[in-house]
Amino acid sequence: MITSNSSPSEITQQVRCTEHVFNRFDINPYNKNKVLDNTVLTEVNPDFLVDILNVFCKYKELDSCCFEMYPVPVILDYLKRSHAYYMEKILPEIGQSISILLSNYPKSHPLLEILYKFYFNYKVDLKEHFSEEEEILFSYAESLYKAKYFKNEIFFFVDFLQKYSINDFIDSHSDTLEGLENVKHILLQYNPPVTNKSSFRMLVGKLENLEHDLRIHAYIEDEILVPKLYLMEKSLKLEFSN
Fold first, then answer.
1. 36 and 82: one domain?
2. Which domain holds residue 28?
3. Do 34 and 40 meet the contact criterion of CB atoms below 8 Å apart?
4. What is its main location (predicted)?
5. Are residues 72 and 131 in the same domain?
6. Is the same domain home to 78 and 172?
């Protein structure tokens, strides 16, 4: 079990994919100081980071009770950092792995069209998905939090909450995992030649890590953030009606 006294180096050696968690928080994954020491001069919540790491390492189940104690700004910070990291780091690495794998296949091989089409379409879809979340959900969450706890933007919400609800976002929210699951399933149906086995395993591993990461991301967004916003919205509406 990971604690705030564990070091990034120890954690990364146990489970390699946690390197990506540290990177998005601008913490050196091979630093030998405690997690607590690495966050003391930053705005990163060490307890939240430890809980996330334990989930990534599968030492702790994804459970709303584990994360519901954290305020909206802490949750939003993680989600925003993750969006940027997926687009700037993870997806380019997957694109590079696809190029390396396909460079050893003949141009007529069906995997070329399947993987290139998947990559470019998925990258566009994911960017649009994240932009929608940031422009609508995250912006709304920040304003809602300020209105609830700091009484900022109250007059804006008196009118706005009559026209918009967090349920509007839930009804229009799409899934980011379907395309990833489909291409992984197709990929695993192919038996790569001996010269391609290493690059094949590397690509599959990157896709599985992204899938695991996105499942955690979606859970925190759908099962932690959205219920918090719903309760704040309900409380403010009740306050305005009295």
1. no
2. 1-61
3. no
4. cytoplasm
5. yes
6. yes
How far apart are the C-alpha atoms of 235 and 73, rounded to whole Å?
18
pTM of the model: 0.90
Most confident of 169-173, 181-185, 200-204: 200-204
Percent of the chain with pLDDT over 70: 92
74 and 109 together in one domain: yes
- Cβ atoms 69, 80 nearer than 8 A: no
